[in-house]
Design brief:
Shape: elongated
Radius of gyration: 22 Å
Distance between the termini: 63 Å
Structural class: mainly alpha
Largest sheet: none
Number of strands: 0
Length: 152
């Protein structure tokens, strides 16, 4: 009897996991990826800002800022390549998903630009670069908050 009960429970478990359609599983996966990407954008923005603040308080040298921002720029380049592959292979069917991933790519490019400007500012201490950094920072926050539905 125990053997039959185990078989029935196992079949029930397998059956319930396959009861979702491919579309339902895809929607759940895309929602998870959307959440992860939103978190990544927010945290990348915060990291760049924290490095800028640390430089402004003389906690980081220009060399440390350059190293940290190079890591951010490399990550941005890799993410942009991944997104370009998704778009090239036409893997996203829903127009909302395509719009979201396009907006995400644009924000990543903006964060990369912010990282580049911060590294240049740390090296030159130019007030022009400081102003450009602040403008890019504000643009990035506006874009991130719009994508994430954060009210300002």
């Amino acid at each position: 009897m125990r053997k039959y009960l185990l078989i029935i429970v196992t079949l029930f478990a397998f059956n319930s996991s396959f009861s979702q359609t491919c579309e339902e599983r895809e929607d759940k996966l895309l929602s998870a990826v959307g959440g992860f990407s939103a978190g990544l954008l927010y945290n990348t923005y915060a990291v760049i800002g924290s490095v800028g603040d640390a430089f402004g308080k003389d906690a980081y040298t220009a060399e440390i800022v350059a190293d940290l921002m190079n890591a951010q720029k490399n990550m941005a380049d890799n993410l942009i390549k991944l997104i370009d592959g998704l778009m090239k292979d036409n893997l996203l069917k829903d127009e909302n998903d395509k719009n979201y991933i396009t907006a995400t790519k644009d924000i990543i490019a903006g964060l990369k630009k912010q990282a580049e400007i911060l590294a240049d500012y740390a090296k030159t201490n130019s007030s022009q670069q400081q102003k450009a950094y602040e403008q890019q920072r504000q643009k990035n926050w506006k874009d991130i908050s719009k994508l994430m539905g954060i009210e300002e």
